[in-house]
Specification:
single chain, about 450 residues, alpha/beta, 2 domains, 7-stranded mixed beta sheet, globular
């Protein structure tokens, strides 16, 4: 049995026998990395499917078997790399000044500039224009830790590249290690709420998706995969994530709401009143000023399941800092190659994707609790916490993964992908990884450009 899956089943409060309903075939290594990304990815995907199967039995459905191919799961940890539009691979949304830069003592710092507001804040500290050579010259004048702190102080986004030993000694690492991988916390009272009628595990469930880039949107895509009505909420003019939005937009509605206006706040409140799940990945506390904290939503819609993803966890001095998978990789030792050796990201975004599947797992566990005991629930986890869990599964020796390829063979990938129609063109993308004997996962809606739909729920 996959040890990581057993841990997730136990953390979720499901009986140990639930792990026996899932079969994971294959194992690490798959790609050239020392981390067990296939095993942990497969476990997180399988756990979400087991939770969906559990909801199916609560509806009166038959118990079912879940199967996950670990190599397919490893591909899912870099899902967006396999997206094609009309047979062509679209460009990736990376800013020209995002990347690693060497500091004055020969160490490295990673600057995340993929969003214009973050780029402006990062460069305001350096006092340069968005030119890689100018940035490099400016960074070379700084101590790495001092620059990391200076950028954090202005709300930018960067990370000094640490070794794993240095990460363990950092101000935040002990807080990350002390938090559970994920929590499901009761935040309000509400009567038990049976699942709506329907032919799939999440039929009739409505989920608001206020997330960006990969982790949170993967959660919404997974909920849609099991039958939920998922509405992605963004804002017109807000920098988007390009191809990521199409890859994670499978099965979703998509609308624009401007929370800077009173009208926008009321539109979201109206949608939330008719929702079952509210998923957000803004910095902790960022939505509270608009009236959308977990407690606000529990009062507005008793019985809500509120999912909150942060970069660094909800405790510790970094709890309000911005961060993305690449930033957390840099700070926590995953990107480290040596004091003066250029760092390198893993070939997968394992923290992002594991977090996304675990967000969906936690949401479905919370829905089961709502159905049986009532209440409003908060599901809480972090990218850094997911990275910590991945490291806890043990490391591969260099000899075990050194010969692994940078990508899976094309003929193998062809067995994992599918085509679907979209307003953007014919999409080629990974098919659902989890296989379920009674309710096969699928997406009933095409991926659409952001803001395609009005902010109105379709009838249940």
């Amino acid at each position: 049995m996959n040890r990581a899956l057993s841990e997730l089943i136990s953390c979720g409060g499901l009986p140990d026998a639930a792990a026996q309903t899932a079969t994971i075939t294959g194992d690490d290594p798959v790609f050239a990395t020392r981390y067990r990304i296939a095993g942990t990815g497969a476990a997180s995907i399988a756990a979400a499917a087991v939770a969906a199967a559990n909801l199916w039995t609560l509806r009166g459905g038959m118990p079912q078997q879940v199967s996950v191919n670990a190599r397919h799961a490893a591909a899912a940890m870099r899902s967006n790399h396999y997206l094609k539009i009309d047979g062509k691979t679209p460009p990736r949304p990376t800013d020209k000044v995002t990347g690693f830069y060497q500091t004055k003592n020969g160490r490295w710092i990673y600057l995340h500039c993929n969003f214009s507001n973050l780029r402006a804040r990062n460069l305001s500290v350096l006092g340069v224009e968005p030119d890689p050579q100018a940035v490099s010259a400016a960074v070379a004048q700084w101590d790495g830790l001092a620059l990391e702190e200076a950028i954090a102080a202005v709300g930018g986004c960067a990370a000094f590249v640490r070794s794993e030993e240095e990460w363990k000694a950092s101000p935040q690492a002990a807080f990350v290690a002390s938090e559970p991988l994920f929590e499901i916390v009761r935040i309000g009272d509400a009567p038990p709420e049976p699942l709506p009628q329907g032919a799939r595990p999440l039929s009739g469930i409505r989920a608001l998706d206020l997330t960006r880039v990969l982790a949170g949107p993967t959660c919404g895509r997974t909920l849609a995969e099991h039958g939920a009505d998922v509405m992605r909420v963004s804002r017109e003019g807000l920098p988007d994530s390009g191809i990521f939005d199409l890859d994670t937009g499978l099965g979703k509605l998509s609308t624009f709401i401007d929370l800077r206006t009173a009208e926008g706040v009321e539109q979201l409140r109206h949608l939330a009143r008719g929702s079952d799940i509210f998923s957000q990945s803004y910095r902790p506390g960022a939505l509270a000023a608009r009236g959308f904290s977990p407690q606000d939503l529990a009062a507005l819609r008793p019985g809500i399941v509120y999912i909150s993803l942060s970069a660094w966890g909800h405790t510790g001095p970094w709890r309000e800092r911005r961060g993305y998978d690449t930033v957390v990789q840099s700070a926590s030792g995953m990107a480290f190659r040596g004091d003066h050796e250029r760092p390198a990201m893993m070939p997968v975004s394992v923290q992002d994707y594991v977090a996304g599947y675990l967000m969906a797992y936690g949401a479905m566990l919370a829905l089961a609790r709502r159905a049986t005991e009532g209440g409003s629930w908060l599901v809480r986890l972090s990218l850094a916490g997911c990275g910590h869990w991945v490291r806890q599964q043990g490391l591969l020796q260099a000899a075990e993964f050194a010969a692994m390829p940078a990508n899976l063979p094309a003929d193998e990938i062809a067995t994992y992908v599918m085509d679907s129609a979209s307003p953007a063109g014919r999409l080629t993308h990974l098919a659902p990884v989890a296989q379920m004997s009674e309710t096969p996962p699928n997406w009933s809606r095409p991926a659409v450009p952001l803001g395609t739909h009005a902010p109105v729920w379709p009838p249940r």
